[in-house]
Amino acid sequence: MYRYDEFDHKLVGERIAQFRRQVKRRLAGELTEDQFRPLRLMNGVYLQLHAYMLRVNVPYGTLSSRQLRKLAHIARVYDRGFGHFTTRQNIQYHWAKLEQVPDILEELASVEVTSIQSSGNCVRNITSDQYAGRAKDEIEDPRVYCELLRQYSVLHPEFSYLPRKFKIAVTGSPHDRAAVAIHDIGLRMHRNEAGEPGFEVLVGGGLGRTPYIAHTIREWLPKQHLLAYVEAILRVYNMYGRRDNIWKARIKIIVNQMGIDRYRELVEREFEAIKDSPLQVPPEELERIERYFAPPAYERLEDQHEALAKLRQADRAFDRWCRTNVAEHKVPGYAIVNISLKAPGKPPGDITADKMDAVADLADRYSFGEIRVSHRQNLVLVDVKQSDLYELWHKLAALELATPNVGLLTDIVCCPGLDYCGLANARSMPVARDISRHFADFERLAEIGQFTINISGCMNACGHHHVGHVGILGVDKRNQEFFQITLGGSSDERPALGDRLGPGLRQDQVPAAMEAIVSKYLELRADGERFLDTYRRVGIEPFKAAVYGDADAKAAA
Amino acid sequence: MFFTAAEGWTPSIDAGVVIDDDAEAERLLAVAQTHQARQVVEPYLIEVTLEDGRPRPIAIREAIRAFGPTIRTDLDKYE
Amino acid sequence: MTALVKDGRLVDDPFVDASGAESIPADGPVIVSLEQWQAGRDALIARGTPLGIRLRSDQHPEAIANDVERFAVIALEFPKFRDGRAYSYARLLRERYGYRGELRAVGDVLMEQLHFMLRVGFDAFEIKEPDPLAAYRTALAEFSVWYQPTGDGRPTAMQLRRGPLPPQASSAASDDTNGFIE
After folding, report:
1. How many residue pairs bridge chain A and chain B with CB atoms within 8 Å of each other?
2. pLDDT tens digit string along C56-98?
3. Interface probe with B: pick from A24, A354, A418, most Cβ of B within 10 Å
C-alpha cells in the first residue's frame, strides 16, 4: 500500500498545525462558529447530537495492521472504546472533544492516517472496491488511480469551497463493488476496442433528498488524462453549481438541470484547454505509485478444493461461513475473507477497540498485514491462504466476527441515525437490530439468498437506502418515528433507485413487514432468482399487498 | 448541555432551568446566545414536561440528546 | 477593518471603487463594474487612466477575456467566504486569459482562505481581519508542500520528487512570497 514520503508527511504536518491554530482561534472566540464550521469540517469534525464526531479517512478502504491498531488506540484513549465504519469506507468516532482533536490528528498522522477533507464542500475520500487488486474479474488495481486522485484533491486551492460535497469512486472491475453510479464522479475501468484499459467517466450520481443515478459523460478516457478530466468536471461544477439552496447544490442537480449533453460540452471544452498541461501524469509518477500496490509475496500454491470440501462436510458452521464470507481470489491457493461486523443484535459497522486490535493481529498472521474496509461496513482480509481458512474461521468466531451473513439479509448497511446524528429524523440502528434478531436463523438466511437492506435515519441517505434491495428510510411525523420502505434498489453495474412501497410503518411493524416481503419473495421466486430478480420480474404490487394488505399495517399511516 | 438558573451550563437536564413564561424564555435564550463566542454552539429552547418535578423532553431527538443513545446503553452518556 | 495588502505590505489603494456608485469620477484610477465597463468601454479606455474592474461571484470572467490587458486591477468578489467561484475565475484569468495585472480578492476575505487565494493567483487582498498583515504572513507560511499545479509555477510534490528544480525554473512570484519555497 502507499507509504508517505517526506512530502506527504510535511503536508499533513503543516495541515495539522494549521488546524491546531484554527481550534485555538475558535476557542478564543476569534473565529465565529460560522467561520469555523467549514474549517473543522474539512478536518472531519462534525458537531453531532451528543458530541463532536471525528471522521477519519481510510483511503480507498485500505489499512495496514499498524494503522488499524492506531485506530483502536484512538477509540480506547480518546473515545468510548469503539468506532463505526461507514458507507464511504471511513471510520467515525462519536465522542470526540474538540480541543483534543489536533492531538488525535497528530497520532493518526504518525501512521499516515488523516481526516483531511473527510467532510466539507470539497473532494472527499476516494472510495473503491474492497477486493481491489485481488478480484478475479478485475482489469487493473483501481487504487493506483485512487491514490493519484487523493493527492490531486487534497488541499486543492481551487476546489476547497465547492457548492457542496464531492464524492468520487473508482472500480477496476466490470462487477461494480464500489457503487460508482451513485457518486458525483464515478470511474469504471474498462478496455476500448484496441484493448487498452481506460475509464468510463460517470457524473452526477448521488443520493439524498433528490437521488440520481450518474450519467456517462465520457465513454472511454485514457488513463493519463484522468486528472485533467476530473479538473474540468470540478471547474465547471465550481463555477456553475447552484449556491442558492443547500438541497440543490450537488453536481447531480446542475447536470440534470442543464442536461448531460450541455454539461459534457462545457467539460470537454475545458478539458481541451488543459489536457496537455502538468496535469498529465508522468509515467514515472504512475510507476512510483504502482509499485506501492504491487502484489505481496504469494507462495506458489494450489487450490485446496478437496481439503476444504472435507472440512466443510465435517463442519456445518464452517461450511456456512465459507459460502457467504469467503470470496474467490485471483491467485491459486488464496482466498478473500470477509469479516462481518453485523453480528445479530449488534450495531452494524461498529467494532470495539479490542476487536480492532485482534483483527490487526489476524491480518499480520494470515493476510500480509493488510485490512480492507467495505462500503457495506464490513472488514476484509484479502490474501488468506485457503489452507489457513479453517483456523482463521475459528479465531474469528471466537471474536464474534464470523457471522455467516455477508451479502445476506442481515448484512445490513445502516447509518448511525438519531441515536448519534444531529441530522437524523429517526433512529436507524434499533431497526437494524430488530431485523437481524428476527432473521437470526442462518439456514433461513442462506435459503433467502443474496439480499441487501440499507437503512437511513433521514433523507441525507448516508445509509444509501435508495440503492438497497430493500431500503428503509426513517422519518419523523408528529414526534413519532416512521419508516418508509423502498424495494428494488441496486448499487452495482445495473444501478437502480428503489421504489416506494407505501406509507410509513412504526418501528415495531418493520420486522413483520420484512417477514411479509421475504415470504412473498420465497413464494414467487423462480429458480435461481435473487430477491432483486424476482422483484424486477413481478413488480411491486405483490409486495405491497403482502405488507399493506394486512389491516394492522394500514393503521400505520 | 443545559442552561441553568445561575446562567451556567450543566450536562444534566435535571439541573436545567425550566421556564414557564414565553417572554422569560426568550430573554434567557438571548443570554445563552451571548455565550456562543467561546462556550456553546447555537443554544435553543426545548419543550419539556415535568415528571415528578423533573424536566423530560417531549421531542424524541431531545430525549436522546438528554439521555444518550438508545443502543449501546452500556455506555454512559457523560463521564 | 478592511485594508489592502499588496506585495507583503499594507498599502493605500490608489483606485477609487466606483463599481457600486451612480457615476464614475471624471479622472483618476478607477474600478468599475462589469455593467459600467460594458456600457462605457470606449470612454473608459479613452480616459487614459489606470482601469480596474470588479466582478461579482456570478460574473464569469470570460466576459472580459479579450480585454484583460486593459486592466491594471481585476477585483474578484467573495460575497461570503464559502462562495468559492472566484478561485476558478482567478485561475482562468491567470492561466487561460493571460492576465498579468493585480488580481485582488475583495469581500469576505479572511485569513483562513488566504493561502488558497495566493495559490490560484491573487496577489492583493482586502483582508477582513483586525491585523491584516499578520494574517497575510501567517497564511503565506502555512504550507510549503502542495500536490497540484496551478499557474503560480511553484513546484509540486510530484515535480520535487523527481529531484530539485534548477534555479530558473522556480517561482516567478515576487519577493515576499519566497516563504512558499524552502
Report:
1. 47
2. 999 999 999 999 999 999 999 999 999 999 999 999 999 999 9
3. A418
Say if residue A468 is exposed, middle or buried (CB neighbours under 10 Å; 0-12, 13-18, 19+). Answer: buried
Written as one letter, the residue type at A344 is P
User: Hey, are the CB atoms on A10 and C148 less than 8 Å from each other?
Assistant: no
A479 touches chain B (CB under 8 A): yes
DSSP collapsed to 3 states, chain C: CEEEEECCEEECCCCEECCCCCCCCCCCCEEEEHHHHHHHHHHHHHHCCCEEEEECCCCCHHHHHHHHHHCCEEEEEECCCCCCHHHHHHHHHHHHCCCCCEEEEEECCCHHHHHHHHHHCCCEEEEECCCHHHHHHHHHHCCCCCCCCCCCCCCCHHHHHCCCCCHHHCCCCCHHHHHHCC
Q: Which chains touch A (3 or more CB pairs under 8 A)?
A: B, C
Residue A386's contacts (CB-CB under 8 Å, 6 or more residues apart) are A301, A303, A304, A307, A308, A333, A334, A335
pLDDT at B76 over 90: no
pTM: 0.95
Give the separation between CA B62 and CA B47, rounded to whole angstroms.
Answer: 9
- Bridge-based pairing of strands A470-477 and A453-456 is parallel
Distance from CA of A545 to the nearest CA of B (A): 31
Q: What's at A65, amino acid-wise?
A: S
* Residue written as grid cell 421466486: A525
Mean pLDDT of C142-165: 87
Mutation for testing the B interface, residue in A24, A49, A437 having most B CBs under 10 Å: A49
pLDDT, one tens digit per residue, over B13-50 is 999 999 999 999 999 999 999 999 889 999 999 999 99
- Collect the ranges in chain A with pLDDT lower than 50: 551, 553, 557
| pLDDT at residue A553, as a whole number | 47
Q: Assign A332 to helix, strand or coil.
A: coil
| CB pair distance less than 8 Å for C147 and A279 | no
Chain A environment of B37 (Cβ under 8 Å)? 29, 32
> How many interface pairs between A and C have CB atoms less than 8 angstroms apart?
98
A282·C158 Cβ contact <8 A? yes
Instruction: Determine the longest span between alpha carbons in chain B, in angstroms.
Output: 40
**What is the structure's pLDDT at C167?**
59
pLDDT category of residue C158 using cuts at 50, 70 and 90: confident
Taking contacts as CB-CB distances below 8 angstroms, the residues of chain A near C163 are none
Measured distance between the N- and C-terminal CA atoms of chain B, rounded to whole angstroms: 13
The predicted pLDDT at position A299 comes to 97
Looking at residue C174, its pLDDT comes to: 38
Displacement of CA A139 from its chain's centroid (Å): 21
Among C82, C138, C147, the residue with its CB nearest the CB of A154 is C147
Q: Alpha-carbon distance A74 to A94, whole Å? A: 12
Q: Is ipTM beyond 0.90? A: yes
Pick from B36, B37, B69: which is nearest to A420 by CB?
A: B69
Q: CA of A393 to nearest chain C CA: how many angstroms apart?
A: 43
CA distance A162 to chain C (A): 6
Count CB-CB contacts under 10 A for residue A291: 11
Q: Is the pLDDT of residue C24 over 60?
A: yes
Strand partners, A370: A64
**A107-166 residues touching C, CB cutoff 8 A:** 121, 151-152, 154-163
Q: What does the pLDDT read at residue A283?
A: 86
- Residue given cell 454512559 in the structure block: B76
Share of chain A above pLDDT 90, in %: 96
How many residues would you count in chain A?
557
Give the pLDDT confidence score for residue C159 in this predicted structure.
Answer: 87
Rounded CA gap, C23 and B18, in Å? Answer: 58
